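I hope you will forgive my troubling you with a question about protein structure. Here, with my thanks, is the record as I have it:
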Amino acid sequence: MTARRPLREWPLAAIALLILGILAMPRPAAAQDTSPAEGTSVRFALTAASDGAAVTEQTYRGKWLAVYFGYTSCPDVCPTTLLDIAQALDALGPRAGAVLPLFITVDPKRDTPGVLTEYVKSFDPRLIALTGTAAQLAAAARGFNVFHERHDNDDGGYSIDHSAFIYLIDPDGRLAKTVASEGGSKQIAAALSALMNGNH
């Protein structure tokens, strides 16, 4: 059996190729996230899953928005985050009336309007599910710097790696704050409360 050569004896070209190979490996979605700067105006043109109405960011002017991108087949982070958003709204009490939570799918192939509508209802009736064409959803994701990437499974199905942020949008349509999904309902409620109080 041939002994392994110490790394210091490898040709420089081989070491360079090794490093390039490591850098090219897929990274978790969180490692690829770069949220838009606070104050950035957001843009999207999508469809409300519940009634098929065309909506844009202008549709929701005058309301605070809590925007989350995900998909209904997501096994963990999406249902947890949607539940956290619902609990954050409960924690805000009457002030929750000033907030609209939006769930934007990154999986239009499986997330039909009917599937989306029933899915968000299971968390909170206040949640609004949005869909659209592949081009519309891709444009919306780019506007929020949302990363999403499909991974095919051996069984013929697929999963999607995606960003896990809640984007808080002010009543004028500007990004006010980005909250990491792992922060939980208390962090979401606290961020919304501070923003509505002008303490940000």
Q: What stands out?
A: The chain has one domain: 32-37+49-196. The beta strands are 45-48, 54-56, 64-70, 99-105, 128-131, 148-152, 158-162, 165-169, 175-180. Residues 77-92 form the longest helix (16 residues).
